[in-house]
């Protein structure tokens, strides 16, 4: 479980940095766990290039 939690933590930080870079003067509220869960469900239903792209994003 540790590699997965590390991956989700890194994913959450990457998303925060991206959101913050375009909204640095405002408050930010998001749920990294919800984003990870949604992408995990999308990954289960995808294949080919789409699955590869989701894996690349989530498993950096």
Radius of gyration: 13 Å
Terminal Cα separation, in Å?
Answer: 16 Å
For the record, the CATH class is Mainly Alpha
What would the average pLDDT be, to the nearest integer?
86
Q: What is the number of E strands? A: 0
Describe the sheet with the most strands.
none
- Anisotropy-based shape: globular
Q: Approximately how much helix is present in the residues?
A: over 70%
Low-confidence stretches: none
List keywords for this structure.
Serpin_dom, Helix Hairpins, mainly alpha, Serpin domain-containing protein, 60 residues, 75% helix, Serpin_sf
Explain how this protein is built.
The chain has 60 residues and is mainly α. The chain has helices at residues 2-22, 32-44, 48-58. The longest helix is centred in the N-terminal third of the chain and has 21 residues, at 2-22. The protein is globular and about 40 Å long. It has a single domain, classed as Helix Hairpins, CATH 1.10.287.
Write the SSE topology:
Elements: H1 2-22, H2 32-44, H3 48-58
Helix pairs in contact: 1-2, 2-3
Organism: Aquarana catesbeiana
Protein name: Serpin domain-containing protein
Domain Serpin: 8-58
Provide a compact summary of the structure:
The chain is mainly alpha-helical and 60 residues long.
């Amino acid at each position: 479980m540790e590699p997965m939690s590390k991956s989700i933590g890194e994913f959450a930080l990457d998303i925060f940095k991206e959101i913050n870079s375009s909204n640095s003067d405002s408050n930010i509220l998001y749920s990294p766990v919800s984003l990870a869960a949604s992408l995990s469900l999308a990954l289960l239903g995808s294949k080919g290039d789409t699955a590869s792209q989701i894996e690349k994003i989530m498993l950096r």
